[in-house]
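(Deposited chain)
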Amino acid sequence: LVDYLAHIIAERRSTPVHDSSFTLIKEHADSGAKVELVLRWTETTDEHLRSYVNGITTSSGGTHENGMRAGLGKAIRNFIETHGLSPKGISLTADDIREGLTGVLSVFVPDPQFQGQTKERLNNPELAAVLDSLVRPALEHWLNQNISASEAIVARIILAARAREASRTAKQQ
């Protein structure tokens, strides 16, 4: 997955803001789900996530993506608060945190429940909590172990928040 992510970043002609990718490969004992996730923040202004369930592309996302995003947001916010990196006068949104994020999420589940005929959206409600519970502690640990990457990511997030605030201010005038 790390090579696939590097290919996606090169294909999109984006520049990563940190050197090493966050990688998670873990099995959830209770649900039998196996999660493989690789993430990297880039200088692009959008979020680009390619997700798969049992090898099937889920282009419309689903509960696995929602759980991953929830865990990601909680981990980043906790890291920022713990290290006193909160920007003055600006509140960070989930979009700020995910701006520039490029990633690949692959989940293997025993009983996938897809929405629609084309299977492009996963609808297993229990997977949101499973991904949240796997992603949050692993990402928090990685952020604390990779301080230079973490600082670059936080700087990127704060830059996104300031740009959003500046854009909002400009529209009001």
